[in-house]
Every structure is written in structure tokens, then in C-alpha cells.
Amino acid sequence: MTNILLFASTVLLWGTTWIAIAFQIEAAPVPVFVSIFHRFALAALVMVAGLALMGRLRRPRVWRFVFAQALCLFCCNFIALYTATTLIPSGLVSVIFSLASLFNAVNARIFFGDRITPRTLVAAALGACGLLLLFWHDLTVDFDISVLKGIGWAALGTCFFSLGNMASRRNTAEGVPPATANAWGMSFGAIALLAIIYATGNTLVTPPSSTYWLAAGYLAVFGSVAGFTAYLMLVARIGSAKAGYATVLFPVIALAASSLFEGYQWTPEAIAGLALTGLGNLVMFTKVSFRPARAVA
């Protein structure tokens, strides 16, 4: 039951962050680096203050994987994904990001020797095909160099996300709880973003828009603090490949939110895509054997 609650929480929380990101970007003309910094600076403040008040703020015994998690999960992947959305439709970014479960399976094989199961491949394929149908209209773009760059940025962001998952697994193995790794990781990620802001010649602006800060607060508290903690606890409990399948389902929640706030219209292709993503979810989590049956003499 705990795994189900963590998985559902991850999907629901991250599924609603797309709308919040759109609100934040539209509310004020702020550089991408600055918006991401505001998100994780607020998230780090909440995490560190919360753990300190509960008497649970600890220094990690091993720091190197906390730094790796900070750069991969709370800095580089968001820079890449935000940049991708400036070049290609967000639906296409989501389709590419949905392959995180495959990235996780491959990286878990490389770094931990995990076996890539047929169940994982089938579920990921069904989920990716479902998202292709869900975002079919967004995918009908004229391919040019900017589109190819956008696809490259989206793939790079997904790769960083997956590597962050691997760093989180190492932190868990070293006895560093997800909440502790997140608190320090978000802090270091915010510091890295601040350095990038000034290194690229930008300035740390503070928009007066209340919508911007409400969106940033939602992204910090729910999308980052609650969402990443739930997700990384799930990675520690069921493994990175299964937990990564949440990235296939949260765009479905994003579309539901888009129907309410942006007037998204469901098409037959989108409904078929929703059915495929649900089928992929069943394949990933139900007890069905993919081994061929043995012949009986």
C-alpha cells in the first residue's frame, strides 16, 4: 500500500507541475536559469528548515553522491528540459522524457548490474506509444535544426534525470535518507544555478508578479519537496526502473489539468493513447510472467 501511495503521489504532484511551470513562465519575462533558481532556493529553504525543526537534519556520511544528485536532479536536467521547451512543443518533450524508465533500466544495468527484464521493455514501449498518440498533434511539426536541437536537449535532460536516480540509489546504499539527500542536494543545486546565472551574464531579478511567486511556491513545495521525496523514496523501495514509469503517467495528469485550465480537447488518438499508458502500467506492476512456457514431455 505504501508503494502505491508513493507512486500515486509522484504522478499527481509532477503531473500538475506542467501547469504551474506555464503560469510561472507566462507571469514574468524571467530567464530560465533564474526561474529554476527561485524554485529550488525556495524548496531548499523549506526542506532544510523543516528537517531542522523536526531535529532530523543530518550531515551525510558520504558527500560525493549528494553532489552528483544535486547537479543531475536539481540543476542540469531542468536547464536542459526548460531549454527544450523553448525549441519544441512541450508534448514532444514529455514523450522523450517518458523514456526515463528505459534510461533507468540501462543505467541500473551499467552502474548496479541490474537485469533488464522483458516486463520493463514491454511496459516502456506501451507507455511511449501511448504518449505518441496522446501528443500526436503536438508532434506534427516541421523538422529543422531547432527541432533537432530541442530533441537533443530533451534527451540530455532525461539522461541527467536518470543519472540523478542512480546517485540517489547510491545515497540510499550509503545510508543517506532521501529527505536528507534532497535537502542538501536542493541547496547545492540552487548554489550551482546561482553561479550559472552570474557566469552567463544574467542578473538575479525578483519579479513583482504574485502569480509568478504562487507558481514558484507550488513548484518548490509540492513539485520539488513533496514530489522528489516521494519519488526517491519509491526508487529506494521498488527500484529505479519501476519508479521511472511514473514519468510515463504524469503527462496524462498534465493533460487533465490542461483540459480544465487551457481548454485541451480530447481526441480519439488521445483516448487510445491514454488506454495504452494504462495498459503499460498494468504490465509493469501486475504479476504476469513473460517467460516462455516449458514444453511438457
TrEMBL record:
GO cellular component terms given for this protein: membrane
Membrane topology: Multi-pass membrane protein
Keyword entries, A-Z: Membrane, Transmembrane, Transmembrane helix
Annotated localization: Membrane
Listed InterPro entries: AA-Vitamin_Transporters (IPR050638), EamA_dom (IPR000620), EmrE-like (IPR037185)
Transmembrane segments: 32-53, 65-85, 91-112, 119-136, 148-167, 179-200, 212-236, 243-264, 270-290
SUPFAM superfamilies: Multidrug resistance efflux transporter EmrE
Main location group: membrane
Domain EamA: 4-135, 149-285
Family per similarity comment: Belongs to the EamA transporter family.
UniProt name for this protein: EamA domain-containing protein
Species: Pannonibacter phragmitetus
